[in-house]
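Standup notes, structure subgroup. Blocker cleared on the iron/sulfur cluster input:
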Amino acid sequence: MFLREEIMRRGFPVAKLQASACMIEFANDLVVGYDGSLYKCPVFMGQEEMCIGSLADGISDYRESHNLDIWKNDECLECAYLPLCFGGCRFFRLLKTGAIDGVDCRRAMLDASLERIVRQDVKREREVS
Ligand code: SF4
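Run returned:
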């Protein structure tokens, strides 16, 4: 929050709050490796187990390996943060637990920061208008 404030105070742009979901959830979002291999996210490039196919051979079924629709559970569907989160980042979950076996829940982070982010943005809007 401190760094975001300082970046804004110096007039540089910062990421805006907006509804977003991971590119893994979108069928037409792909990353193509140097050798034509296909991935669902840039962070998975080069990881053989996360390769979903190739330009030559097409796309394999990655629903299970990437745990698609992971956010379609009662807790997430009831969560006010769903439009900002959609179950978080698969890569972070993999780093934390060694598997994409659940959501990368952002509730604690958003509880702690969302109001301050909105206040920063409102303050900045008022300063520039
Ligand atoms: S913050 Fe947690 S509970 Fe809410 S949508 Fe994200 S992962 Fe689901």
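Discussed briefly. The chain has a mean pLDDT of 93.
Next: hand off to the docking folks.
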